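Continuing from the previous page of notes. For each protein in this section, the sequence appears first, followed by its structure tokens. Read the first protein now.
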Amino acid sequence: MKFNGFIVSLFGVILLAYLLPQGNEILPLKTITDIGIGFIFFFYGLKLAPQEIKQGLLNYKVHLIVQLTTFIVFPLLALAYLPLFEQGKDSELWTAIFFLATLPSTVSSSIVMVALAKGNLPAAIFNASLSGLIGIFATPIWLSIILGKSADFQFLDVLLKLGWQILAPLIVGLILQRIFGNWARKHSKQLALFDKGIILIIVYSSFSNSFTSNLFDAIDLSGFLLLIVGVLVLFFVVYYLTALASNLLKLTLEDKITAQFCGTKKSLVHGSVMVNVIFGNSANTGLLLLPIMLFHSSQLILIAYFAEKYRKRKPEMAKI
């Protein structure tokens, strides 16, 4: 297991937000993150390789497992958590878990882990990219249906904001891909550092608001432990459900790896963007980000472990 500086940095900026919560007053963080978000998805559009998307296009069984798991199974499992919270849908902790469950799959780490485990890489690239596009619509739809008025947002307004902040830069990136695509893929590591930097700023800004308003004072130890257990249960249930579905559909081991690794992921990038667009600059955005951060950390560690196991498999191995 390699040291992951990004995970450490995430919790480091939370500590910084606790010690120095005045960052939003000192710097125009909202403007910085709004511009940064646009560039994240512009670069994402530049890096999408059309030939790799085409190679993964026809593998419909993997697509069904990944997309249904991401946008149907995850939210339904989160709904099953409702009886555990006394306030039901009014519980901010449950809302945070449900928000996590509605998010799309992550892109970069899914592809990296599938490559490490020797899975079907073109299918992983296609599904991770498709998931991000579907999530622009699926996440606000789920929140609008389940949370209703308590979500305190207008669906069409949110859709327009997401389209402006995510879809428009993405389309511009795709249009300019022929000119700058090779440059973007060549410098993908440097661009990934930019992505992470913007996420860290969003996390700091969100938690600063939460600490300033004393939001976390309302969460006791039992609530925090429930959050951690809930996040881990979500991961393992989905991980083994995708394995079961893959076996029932008689997928090859390479396709099964892709289904498991892409179907269990949730995107911290999309979560960080959408929490600001959907819920605004409210006090509870830090709390809403907490399950995503816990899940992100867990998925990297656990999937890295499973990827290493798959990588060391014997050539004749058919199933795990």
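Done with the first. The second protein uses the same format. Note its length before scrolling.
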Amino acid sequence: MSAHPTSHAAPAPALGGQRPAEVEAEIAELAVAGKDLRARRHADLTRKAYLSDFAHFAAWCRRRLIVPLPAEPAAVWLYLTALAEASGGGYKVATLERRLSAIKWVHEAGARPSPTAHTEIRELMAGIRRKHGARPSKVDPLSTGQLAAIVAGLDLGGLAGLRDRALLLLGYAGAFRRSELVGLERGHLTRVADGYLARLVRGKDDQEGLGRDVGVPAFPGSPLCPVAAVDAWLAAAGISEGPVFRRVTRYQTVGGKALSGAAVALIVKRAAVAAGIPADKLAGHSLRAGHATTAAQNGAPDRTIMRQTGHKRVETLDGYVRPATVFKDNSAAYLGLGPGRPSGALRPADETEALR
């Protein structure tokens, strides 16, 4: 049975009488258009990921002669258990939750009841989280000092070095995701008095494609100025339209297609290693994480950071900010454990009274 999410029929209104042929044709056209719009409710990458995850579930079911669509809660229950208890440590909880979302999406998109809402499934996932749950691993953020060392180690005599410097500095100053960097086109960058105005057409938190504008300020005279770095790269590569960040061949020619997200991670790691910085836990996201973390350490308000990163929830930003500020205004500093006393600490007489 097909698992394609748009294979079911569009909803049809109740017939209130004999419709003229032109009305029937109009309804048929609206049904087709509506199905197309409904299919676009998720980004292309999200739909592909859901279908890929569901394909894994369907293959698992078929090998055991279990019907995957529509699936019974018992089938999902067994599937999750098998993955959680797989030899070698089992799948991560985040992977299981993603597979559940895919199973739910395919069923609901096909106008079928989802088996994932069953009480048994919720209780099973609670047990899996308790037994196998672990703190999500995060990439290391890059600090400004580390970035300075990385940029200083780049070979700026070739196009690849100019590109890498522009990508690293723009990604760091703009707090961009790697997908936003590779999706950036020349027409999305507008040079203004204060720097670059970058138009992000679509991002992870912008599934409706409304876009948002991000200001990337210039720091004249600084070797870490992202605007000067981008200017130099665009001029040297002769890019007037199309993707900003592209492949550079060993013959110093520039390709026409945008870099992949994996290439951004590779550039970060390669440049870090060349600068003598451990790169095991560095990735493309280290630029964005580094922006939020370093800004928080230097006292930037949450609202200021969120305006640049595009985060809509403080709770999400806290994943960066809290680790960076755990020693700032720490209540342990008010306990009088070290030399000197914090403001408002108990005087000796008060301490005696407090102990009675």
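What the second structure shows: The CA atoms of residues 345 and 351 lie 9 Å apart. The chain has 14 helices and five strands. We return to this in next week's lecture.
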